[in-house]
Amino acid sequence: MIELNAPDQKSVRLESATAGEALEKLGLRGGALAAMVNGKAVDLYRPLTESGSIEPIGPDSEEGLDILRHSAAHLMAQAVAEMYPGTRFGVGPAIRDGFYYDMEIPGGITEEDLPKIEKEMRRIAKRAIPVERREMSKEEALAYFREKDDPYKAEIISELEEEKVSLYFQGNYADLCRGPHVPNTSYVRHFKLLSVAGAYWRGDEKNIMLTRVYGTAFGNEEALEAYIRRMEEAKSRDHRRLGKELDLFSIQAEGPGFPFFHPRGMVILNGLMDFWRKEHTKRGYCEIRTPLILDRSLWIRSGHWDHYRENMYFTEIDEQPFAIKPMNCPGGMLVYKSQIRSYRDLPMRVAELGIVHRHERSGVLHGLMRVRCFTQDDAHLYCRPEQVKDEIIGIMDLCRYIYSDVFGFKYTMELSTRPENSMGSEEQWDIAESALKQALEESGAEYRLNPGDGAFYGPKIDFHLEDCIGRTWQCGTIQLDFQMPEKFDLTYIGADGKEHRPVMLHRTILGSLERFFGILIENFAGAFPYWIAPVQVRILPVSGDFVDYAKETAQKLRAKGIRVEIDERDEKLGKKIRDAQTQKIPYMAVVGEKEMQSGTIAPRERSRGDLGSMPLEEFLEVLAGEFNPLKS
RNA sequence: GCCGGUGUAGCUCAGUUGGCAGAGCAGCGCACUCGUAAUGCGCAGGUCUCCAGUUCAAGUCUGGACACCGGCUCCA
Question: Could you tell me the pTM of the whole model?
């Protein structure tokens, strides 16, 4: 006899039952995909063996969605297995927003085949084929998949530690899987196949490339449609599209990965830099600029030759080998070394908006998000060991200000530790890692650990921004570096009159100005905040008779440093408003007979609409009231 | 770099089985002198990404290069 308690206090005593039967008795079966029994997700068909808690898992929970999507992946695999005999299967997990399955399909498929596969999936789903779990020994499972000529499954099984594995059967199809799954295929109803892509077996580029089909599934049609709308929304915000439409930047065939910034884009880039400089000056930073091209010996000394050569560009000057800088630090080292430093000089906070070039593989380039030439908002902080923690906390505070206060992003932090291809002793790494950890913990902020993902010269804290439609982007980073000061023999004279080794921090906040610009475009959907908008006010004369008055008004606004333009075209007002609106200009100022006579203007804000006529002075006050971190 | 897809006017895209290269928007001109999200008419605009090949004939078929798009790997 076992006793099961539901979350709503109800309980049942049963002689023997499956999870599904128990839920049924408790009146909780409706809509459940699986059950949570004593904190473990199990199939509804699973016989219960011990007393404890039980609750249903529905498609509205995260676990339920995962189960549903995983089952959708199996359903797709079953369809493909039937339609393309000889297909071998890799892995097919649920992921954020959907699922995928990696397969080796004879003859391959393209996106045009997806509707056919979807159709077959719906056919199978309708038949409500039971999904059954069977446990077996590894040997049995191996024999099963070997017989089916499924070497990828066999490979996974042979590497599993457990003695027993579980397989899920639905009709002729079976898959190695921990489960749980939906009771039968009819539970998977609201799904869509999205795209076809290549993916290396086990994510290793030395392995064969399998065909990956992405799809998604939801508990109801509305959620599926909402997801599709969200994807369309993301597409309409694509910075490459908006960059073209708003004439911000372009990328030309002559410079793959090397963006061209147009006048309007430059306003934003310059705005970012002005704001950034102002904030850094406030916080005790100085600024330097180091050369783009430096002698190869410098890069050998810094370790980049050994660790980063693949990503570097090289050139020659007077038959001497030089390299284009992929990072700013070695140049910065030379500035530090240009004179003797005292402990009184520390901490030194040396910023550099440094342009770096990195050879990125052709397939990874992506608008402004992934380029071959970009501007890092870099800084190197040199300090005494006891200053490290406070400096890190200071950087974290600057990040908070810029990310949250100025741009309104949510963000998370991540601590990355020693990677495989690293320089330096274990002891140094331990000290560096614990320094970062300590600063994080003292700040009280939450963070994630990402083992083995540090830079080759030191551990790091990364900052991930979340944009307004939930995507995340890595921007800022703080990296502790004990290597560079050693390699370049950096010193300062201590109070004791002896030479000491400074600790060095690398850090960026925006990361790459280019990428950050791209993120801003997508986050704001091109409707930039007033302070950084390329054009802040567009004056719209009602007809040609008012162009002179428009010009006068524009002059007055420009004198106040406001970026203004006039729409002088021989078009109707409605057309001019429409065009200014699609250009996402924050303010329009309509001028016609009435305004000219009374010396006023009629402003219109892009999201609030007509603000009514007002004297220019009043409009200037409205503008002065806009958020502007350049002025504070 | 790898897998798959795409490349036609400034932009977005049509273009039948190989047979004279099209539309909308943008641009320019003319008319209208206009009041809060598209006034009308007209004109101009193309080495159909590039290089080879097949063919009487290639935007269309074949091969290669380049670029872009979706992913993988990598990454700010």
Answer: 0.92
